[in-house]
Amino acid sequence: AQSVTQLGSHVSVSEGALVLLRCNYSSSVPPYLFWYVQYPNQGLQLLLKYTSAATLVKGINGFEAEFKKSETSFHLTKPSAHMSDAAEYFCAVSDSGANSKLTFGKGITLSVRP
Amino acid sequence: KAGVTQTPRYLIKTRGQQVTLSCSPISGHRSVSWYQQTPGQGLQFLFEYFSETQRNKGNFPGRFSGRQFSNSRSEMNVSTLELGDSALYLCASSFRQGAGTEAFFGQGTRLTVV
After folding, report:
1. Residues A14-65: pLDDT tens digits?
2. Spatial distance between the Cα atoms of B19 and B8, rounded to a whole number of angstroms
3. Would you tell me how many other CB atoms lie within 10 Å of the CB of residue B71?
4. pLDDT of B53-63, one tens digit each?
5. Cα–Cα distance between B69 and B71 in angstroms, integer?
6. CB count, 10 Å around CB of B22?
7. What is the DSSP letter of B102?
8. Which residue of chain A comes nearest to B56, CA vs CA?
9. A3 touches chain B (CB under 8 A)
10. Do the Cβ atoms of A96 and B102 come within 8 Å?
11. Sequence-distant (≥ 6) Cβ neighbours of residue B5 within 8 angstroms
C-alpha cells in the first residue's frame, strides 16, 4: 500500500526565509503525489500535484515541489515565507487503479515569525 | 463556479444518537469522497461514491454509511454515536474517478459528540 511520511510536526521560519517541508513516499508503482494546505477551521486546498509530466511542479502561492525518485521524496519549498503561509500542510499519495482515495501524511504546522 | 458545500458546519450530538451530514459537490463533478480528521489519527478515508455507487471503503465500522444521489450530492450517516466520533468530516469532489484525480475539499462539518 502506498504511504507518505512527513517528518516532524512543526516548522518555524522567519518571514522572508526559505520554507522547506519534507515528504517521503512509499509506493510500488509510480505515484501521484499532492500537497494540500489547511488554514484554521477550513477544509483542504490543493497547492500542487505531481503526475510524472515534470519532476519540478509549480503550485499556487509561490510554492513548488520536486519529485526525486532516487530519494523517494517530494519536498515542498517556497523561497520567501509570508505571514499568510502559516497553516498546516499535508502531503498525500493517490491510490492506484480506479479509485480516487488519498492517503495523507500526519501534516506539518508551519509558523512564520515576523 | 461554486465550491464544495458541506452542511451543517457545526453539530453537537449526544452519545447514542445518529447524525447525517450533507455534501454538494462542484457542479459537474461525479465523484464524492469522505474523510475523517482527528488530532490523533489525522486524515482517514471513509468512502468514495461515483455514479451513486460506493466504489471504495475505508477501515471504519458499519455505523458509518453513505449514499450518493442522482445529482451527485452525497450524505454520510453515523449511527449510535460514540465520543470518539468527534471529528472534522471533510467531503471532497472530483470530476472523475481514478488515481491522480484532483480532489477539491469542502470546509467540513465539525461534529462534537457529548
Report:
1. 999 999 999 999 977 778 999 999 999 889 999 999 987 788 999 999 999 9
2. 11
3. 10
4. 999 999 999 99
5. 5
6. 15
7. -
8. A99
9. no
10. no
11. B23, B24, B106
Give chain B's radius of gyration (CA, Å): 13
Q: How many other β-carbons are positioned within 10 Å of the β-carbon of residue A104?
A: 21
If we measure between CA atoms, which residue out of B91, B85, B49, B94 comes closest to residue B67?
B49
Q: Which residues of B touch A42 (CB under 8 A)?
A: 107-108
Classify the C-alpha dihedral B88-B56-B6-B62 as positive or negative.
negative
pLDDT at B99: 80
- How far is it, in rounded angstroms, from Cα A94 to Cα A100? 7
What distance, in Å, lies between the first and last C-alpha atoms of chain B? 37
**Cis preceding-peptide flag for B8 (omega within 30 of 0):** yes
Residues in chain A: 114
Q: What is the tens place of the pLDDT at every residue in B52-104?
A: 999 999 999 999 999 999 999 999 999 999 999 999 999 999 998 888 888 99
Optimal mutation site among A99, A103, A104, A106, interface B, most CBs of chain B within 10 A: A99
